[in-house]
Amino acid sequence: MNPVNPTKDRIDQLAATLAATHARGGTVNDHTTALPSRREIAHLCDHVLALLFPGYFSGTAVHGNEVAGLLARSLAEGEVLLQAAIRLSGHFGTRPGDAAAPGASKARELAVAALEALPEVAALVQTDVDAAFANDPAAIDRATIILSYPCIEALAIQRFAHRLYLLGVPILPRMMTEIAHSRTGIDIHPGAAIGASFFIDHGTGVVIGETSRIGRNCVLYQGVGLVAWNPLERDEHGELRRGQSNKRHPDLEDHVTIYAGATILGGDTVIGHHSVIGGNVWVTRSVAPGSVVRNKEPELDIRPRRRQEPA
Amino acid sequence: MNPVNPTKDRIDQLAATLAATHARGGTVNDHTTALPSRREIAHLCDHVLALLFPGYFSGTAVHGNEVAGLLARSLAEGEVLLQAAIRLSGHFGTRPGDAAAPGASKARELAVAALEALPEVAALVQTDVDAAFANDPAAIDRATIILSYPCIEALAIQRFAHRLYLLGVPILPRMMTEIAHSRTGIDIHPGAAIGASFFIDHGTGVVIGETSRIGRNCVLYQGVGLVAWNPLERDEHGELRRGQSNKRHPDLEDHVTIYAGATILGGDTVIGHHSVIGGNVWVTRSVAPGSVVRNKEPELDIRPRRRQEPA
Amino acid sequence: MNPVNPTKDRIDQLAATLAATHARGGTVNDHTTALPSRREIAHLCDHVLALLFPGYFSGTAVHGNEVAGLLARSLAEGEVLLQAAIRLSGHFGTRPGDAAAPGASKARELAVAALEALPEVAALVQTDVDAAFANDPAAIDRATIILSYPCIEALAIQRFAHRLYLLGVPILPRMMTEIAHSRTGIDIHPGAAIGASFFIDHGTGVVIGETSRIGRNCVLYQGVGLVAWNPLERDEHGELRRGQSNKRHPDLEDHVTIYAGATILGGDTVIGHHSVIGGNVWVTRSVAPGSVVRNKEPELDIRPRRRQEPA
Q: Which residues in chain A are closer than 8 Å to C232, comparing Cβ atoms?
């Protein structure tokens, strides 16, 4: 024991014990490279938002003839950020078919391919802004929607991350959507395929699973889940069936509205177009187009509060 | 094609395509000035918190005879931050009656008027701290409540943003409450009018709409919604009725308690004073004072799990 | 009135009024020292995460023979951060039995004692990563789980904060779990005692109260609450019974699964081992081991939407 600094002895002993725990548990990243850092991926998310709404998040307005030049510089910078994140992610991916451990040229190719989806993503996110304006009586102007509505941030990030997911990039797409989840309370897996003009009001508690497919002009309120009914389906070897090979989340056709707290479950469940699902409803099977589904008039027990009865 | 750097060619081409998409969609901020930046508004929110709880968020304690001097300096700094944010917001507001595109002197006047509401806001937030202490058995000391309870941050920001809303400042109030929403999971529109001694336990998933009015000494638990029943009411021209002109969210009288996951809907719905609304209840019409409203004893289906039945 | 700068006069007047409001309300921290700052506690949380997953959050990989040395340096730095936070917290704690206003040597002792729990915490969090992999078909690799799953961050912070709570450190443990709550939407009180191999899917809206005890191999989905049934129990003097002296949150035995939106209430409620609680169920009494509890088949009212009926 070190008579001068007994704390140092305890710390050194503790370091050895903790190192042994990590060695047993495999919780050290001892690959040859770092993993993408959350701070850098958060910065990448902000960069994607700035590309999708020039002049809204940059702190300066952008005038007509400056737009293409600004975008060219911003895209070039985005390509550098994205290429680095893809390279770091690629060393760790294990999804069958993933682009594993890409060299610089493969990572650059994937980064440029993802960026080339931005015009299509931008056009989709524009329809989401319009859908928010059309569906929310609290919305007075589009600037407020773009600057502050959680659904716009969540959808902008998810729609871009979905392209990375389709390109087979591991780790990074989910890191991006979880950053959006942390900021907005809206949890959309990057695997979900979402049509144009999607509006999520309030948003906190919304969950959309990996294998959901959502049509055009759908509206969700807070706390709605599109989730798995029996998630732990196993193959003939007893292994969990993972990813897109296990269609376990429901589909919505066009023009479906789902009110707060409703839960739709199961990979074979399809909510037909122009249907309305009421609040708190629990749906485990398909619903024909044009349906209105509500819980039976809830039987409430209403009685006077007794004197001194606590709340 | 650039033989030296083919990526550059693709990026330049992409920039042109993306610029065209933005031109079509109107998603460039091409006004003469920048919009308020989220980072600056987050800083403004932190500044408001520090004014409401001197010495709690500043990293230094404040002794009795220093308080007024410290507040004077902090208010002067706050006036600068707020005036800048109001000017940037004002260029973009389109709400009927909004203070549009204010010059420096008008923006300063609005900023000072909002700051002059701070003593009243501080007195209200003090009652919220007391309400948390009175209602939460996990609360042992007021310092923990002020430093870490999500409801205190959400209410402090909303009560100040509500004054900006009443002054007709566009964009900024909602940006402030959405920053609080992102940090706390509690979504209170700046339009809501909230009485003294309000407590929200846990908080994640709570939604309070723009036209709600809440009395004194109310308590909400996590996941409670005070929301619109039929949000898309239209005027005789088929236009959505927006803002306060469409009273669409419910009112709570004094001493109302609402348990987790309950939803109260509709602009004519009034929950009478001293009423208690049970968890998960769905209420679409008014309730007399002193009522206890619960779902009928839920019929549960309880059976033994079959051998090997999956979870 | 100052003819040169009338705003300054109003600000000075306002500072005096606001100072008087704070003096009345006791909302100035006028103790002799600062309180722990949220920014520093957030930094401490990040430091704990880095100690629990070396090389995952640090931006560099760590190779086998470097691990113990890196951990020794990181633990020494953590001891400094933690000791400072404990000293600042200790000046403000008022929980009966709390270590109040510790001197430097007592704070160092508490900090080292908490750090010495890290190997056990690390071993528990490793089981949480394995549980996520075993229970989530969307999980393809452990790196994504460690880097981005909200439950891992929430559990890592809560499991460490729980040790500080057991050591009687005031304020700090709750500040840490509220930082995790803000980032993840998962609200676990530092008092809750949680067994190995715990998985929370999605997570937003989950609440676990101070006096809950959870066994091994339990799984919760989003929006599940383990909460108080009658929180405001009072002692013979009419005082609220606070903290662990008021067992008010339920217990889960081993291998319990609870689906989205279910709420379990009350300090005497025990969910027996190997039970499954269905979504949205509201449980106020104990359930025998091996039970399956669901709401009776919900009676849905399904009808065709009328022509032109609004959503």
A: 310-311
Find chains touching chain B: ≥3 CB pairs under 8 Å: A, C
What is the complex's ipTM, to 2 decimals? 0.92
Dist. CA C156–CA C46, nearest whole Å: 10
pLDDT digits (tens, 9 = 90+) for A124-172: 999 999 999 999 999 988 999 999 999 999 999 999 999 999 999 999 9
In the predicted structure, residue B66 carries a pLDDT above the cut 50: yes
Looking at the domain B205-234+243-295, which fold is it?
UDP N-Acetylglucosamine Acyltransferase; domain 1 (2.160.10)
CB of B16 less than 8 A from some CB of A = yes
B21 and chain A in contact, CB less than 8 A: yes
Q: Which chain A residue shows the shortest CA-CA distance from C119?
A: A18
Contact at CB, A34 and C55, closer than 8 angstroms: yes
The CATH number of C33-185, from 1.10.10.10, 1.10.3130.10, 1.10.150.120, 3.30.565.10, is: 1.10.3130.10
Among A57, A128, A144, A186, the strongest candidate for a mutation testing the B interface, having the largest count of B CBs within 10 A, is: A144
Domain with CATH 2.160.10.10 in chain A: 205-233+245-295
Contact assessment for residue C128 and residue C199, using Cβ atoms and an 8 Å cutoff: yes
- pLDDT reported for residue A98: 44
Q: Is C199 helix (H, G, I), strand (E, B) or coil?
A: strand
Q: How many helices (H) and strands (E) does chain C have?
A: 8, 15
> Residue B250: its pLDDT value, please?
98
What's this model's pTM, rounded to 2 decimal places? 0.94
Q: Which chain A residue is nearest to residue C78, measuring alpha carbons?
A: A11
Give the tens place of pLDDT for each residue, B100-148: 456 778 889 999 999 999 999 999 999 999 999 999 999 988 999 999 9
**pLDDT for C160:** 98
C11:B79 CB<8 A? yes
Q: How many residues does chain C have?
A: 311
Report the chain B residue with the minimal C-alpha distance to residue C257: B311
> In the CATH hierarchy, which fold is given to the domain comprising A205-233+245-295?
UDP N-Acetylglucosamine Acyltransferase; domain 1 (2.160.10)
Q: Which CATH number fits domain A34-185: 2.40.50.140, 1.10.3130.10, 1.20.1250.10, 3.50.50.60?
A: 1.10.3130.10
Q: Is C138 in contact with A165 (CB distance < 8 Å)?
A: no
Touching check for C285 and chain B: CB below 8 Å? Answer: no
Find the closest chain C residue to A203 by CA distance: C204
Q: How far apart are CA B265 and CA B227, in angstroms?
A: 5
- Average confidence (pLDDT) over A96-114: 75
C171 touching B (Cβ < 8 Å): yes
Contact by Cβ (8 Å): B86, B172: yes
Q: In this complex, do B57 and C34 lie within 8 Å of one another by their Cβ atoms?
A: no
pLDDT of residue C73: 95
Q: Which pLDDT band, with edges at 50, 70 and 90, does C311 fall under?
A: low
A137 — alpha (psi -120 to 50), left (phi > 0) or beta?
alpha
- CB < 8 Å to B279, chain C: 263, 265, 282
β-strand pairing of B263-265 with B225-227: parallel
Q: Is the pLDDT of residue A267 over 90?
A: yes
Q: CA angle at residue A305 from A302 to A307, to 5 degrees?
A: 165
* B91/chain C closest Cα distance in angstroms: 23
B39-69 CB burial, b ≥16 within 10 A, e <16: ebbbebbbbbbbbbbbbbbbeebbeeebbbe
Give the pLDDT band of residue C267 (cuts 50, 70, 90): very high
